[in-house]
Amino acid sequence: WKKALDKIPDLIISDVMMPVMDGFEFIEKLRGNPDLRHLPVVVLTAKILTVQERSFLEQSVAQVVRKGAQDQDKLLEEITALVHANRN
C-alpha cells in the first residue's frame, strides 16, 4: 500500500462497487494500515446498501453519499471541510 503511494492523500472518495476488490474490502485494508487508517473516506455509491453494509460504513468512513441524491456544490463543500479538518 504505502509503497504504491508517492504521497498520502488528504481524503479518499470511493465507491463500494469496484472491479477488482469491493469497496468494503478496500476500506478494511485501509483501516488495517497504521499509516493510512486516519484518512477520511467518503463513499459515493448508487448501491442499495444492506443494514449490515450501512452499519459497517457508518463506523468506518466519514460520510456515505448516494449518487445523485446530493447537490454537487454541497458535496464539494463537505469534502473541502473534511480535507481541512484532516490537515489540522
Structure characteristics:
3 helices; alpha/beta; 3 strands; 88 residues; 41% helix; 3-stranded parallel sheet
User: What's the end-to-end separation, in Å?
Assistant: 24 Å
Round the Cα radius of gyration to an integer and report it. 13 Å
Number of strands: 3
The count of helical stretches stands at 3
Note the run of SSEs as H and E.
EHEHEH
Structural class: alpha/beta
- Overall shape: globular
Report on this model:
The model has no long low-confidence stretch (mean pLDDT 86). 41% of the residues lie in helices and 14% in strands. Helix 1 packs parallel to helix 2. By secondary structure, the chain is an alpha/beta fold. The chain has a three-stranded parallel beta sheet, covered by helices on one side. The protein has helices spanning 23-32, 51-60, 72-87, and strands spanning 12-14, 41-45, 63-66. It contains three helices and three strands; from the N terminus they run βαβαβα. 8% of the residues are buried. The chain is globular and about 30 Å long.
